[in-house]
Structures are given as C-alpha cells and as structure tokens.
Amino acid sequence: MKNTVINLVKRPNITITPDIFEQTSIETAPLEAGQFLVKQTHMSLDPAMRGWMNEDRGSYIPPVELGDVMRSSGVGKVVESNNEDFPVDTQVMGMFGWQEYAVCAADTAKAIPSEIPPEAVLSVLALPGITAHQGLFGVLKPKSGETIVVSGAAGSVGSLVGQMAKLEGLKVIGVAGSEDKCNWLKEIGFDEAINYKTDDIDKAVAAAAPDGIDCYFENTGGAIQHAVFANMNAFGRIAVCGMIGDYNTDKPSVGPNWMNIIKKRLMIQGFTMPDHRAEWPAMTQKMAGYLMQGKIQYRCHILDGLESAIEGINLLFSGGNNGKLIVKL
Question: Under DSSP, is residue 25 helix (H, G, I), strand (E, B) or coil?
Fold first, then answer.
C-alpha cells in the first residue's frame, strides 16, 4: 500500500521553513506477527516538535534523525491486523508520525473507544491532557483558595490547567494573545483574562491578583514571566512546562533576577512527560473522567491534509491557532 510520508531532512536554523521537510511516497512494510496497520485520520501538532527537530542530544528525548519521518502523535483506525487485540476498525492513538499509514505493535498504540471523537482524544486524552495534569497536580500541588496564573492559557495545555484549577477552588488568571482567546477563557470559567499584546502586563497582573500569586504555570516566557515573578507570594510554586517565546530565536529573553526565589522561598520546577510514563494511564483515565462528565471544554484548530503540517506548524509560534492544532488527513 502506498504511504505518503514527510521526513525531516534538515535542522531548522532559527525558524521552521518548508525546506527542512521532504514529502515522499513509499510502500508500507508487510505486517509481521502481532502487528497491525493504522490509517491515521488526525495528527497532532505541538510546540515540543520544535525541540525534537534540533540536534541537541542532551535533551529529555532524542532528536528526530535526519531522513526519518517527523515525530508526532495521532489518532487513526486499524485497516489491517495480525493482532486479535486490535481488530480492523479499532480506533487507536500513538506516535504515528507525519504519515498516512503506520505499522504498529501492541506497545506502540493504545485502543480508544470509538465514541470518543479524535479531536477530543488529541486535545484532552493525549499529550496536552497528561501534561496539564502532571504540571498542575504533580508540580504545583494547588490548594483551594489560592491564585494561579497560566501563560499560553488559550492553548491546549493551558486551557486544561485553568479549568482543572478552577475545579480545585483556585482563582484562575489566564494570559493569551487576542481578545477572542481572552473571551473564550472567560467562557470556560477563568476568573480573569489578560491580553499580553494590548494590556499593560505589569499593571494587569497586579490588578488581577491583588493578594499575590501562589502558582504559576509557565508556557511562554517573555514579559508575563517577569510580571508574575514580581507578584509571587511566599512559598509560591512555578511549573515550567514550555518557553514558546524562545523557541524560534537565537537570543533567549532575559529571565527575572533570582533574588525573589530566596526572599519568597519559591519552588521552580521544570518537567517533561517521558519522566512520568508509568503514570500516563492513570492521568489519562482522570482526564477522560473530566471529559465525559462535561467538566472541561476544549476547542480545535483544524488543518486539512498531511502537507498542511509543513506550513501550519508555525501557527504555534505566531499564536495564529485557536485551540489544539490538529491536521485532519
């Protein structure tokens, strides 16, 4: 069977440009015992991909090798099978990469009930959901009555963090980059929403959190980091999930002075999900519970066709996506 694939053939210089990818067509490999063939229907585009393209061998996950299919998670249907646990028409999710078809084994894909839409799987049950869960509960350990600020709050991870924090009884302040995004944050329960492109960040943060900030979920870096850091309460906690503002630059922004870490006795912790692989099933189950009970909402930005990923991935870094960025194949 012919399989359209997109390989990574060059490392990006600073920004992601189309010439670092190569689209080609190959034959799918014959299935061995226990394997099954998945036709991918929906593919996730995530900010972490920018790091996976780099040569950095000291990161939390090895880079995508040049000439290999670009790494990504996705949802699809089994179309051929040599595995009785994954019969034809089973909906599955896994790290399928930028391609139409993927040959899988039982340990590389997970069966998902067919009644759950693929968009919900990638927005809530896959990497965004478990990342949000680990950062909030594993790192920040929120307490009812506290105040949390979430940067990149209208994104797939940030929006889930804010909604779960609200369920835990926190005051939730979100930071996003447009009025539409800020309005949506209010619709899904955020107490305050700050537009970092138009608001005076320092004044807006101080006004939204007059009693200070106990938890900060960091997705972006930039000016909001300084404003939040200056308003942290004693024994505040900061979970560093991403620094998307620095991904496409050769000169990372200057961070806050560390004096407040001492004065306020702050805890700052970075985290990545491969370190918590054993906990993924439990986290996914909890996120599924939130979803099925209608306690959390999500929205998606859908791109059409595999090739749309080549240009579309840059929406993540320009802020041009409204919700979870997904390619529909």
Answer: strand
Task: Give tens-digit pLDDT for 97-135.
Answer: 999 999 999 999 999 999 999 999 999 999 999 999 999
Which tokens sit at 325?
């960025």
CB 109 within 8 A of CB 86: yes
Nearest to 4 by CA among 44, 40, 45, 58: 40
In the chain, the domains with their CATH numbers are 2-115+299-328 (3.90.180.10), 128-274 (3.40.50.720)
Assessment of whether the complete model's pTM goes beyond 0.70? yes
Q: Is the dihedral of CA 302, 273, 158, 175 positive or negative?
A: negative
* Helical H segments across 46-188, by residue range: 48-52, 118-120, 127-133, 156-167, 179-187
The alpha carbon of 211 is separated from its chain's Cα centroid by a whole number of angstroms, namely 30
Query: Taking phi first (over 0 means left), then psi (-120 to 50 degrees means alpha), and beta for anything else, what does residue 38 get?
Result: beta
pLDDT in tens, 4-62: 999 999 999 989 999 999 999 999 999 999 999 999 999 999 999 999 999 888 888 89
Tokens of 222: 């930039």
What are phi and psi for residue 281, nearest 5 degrees?
Answer: -60, -45
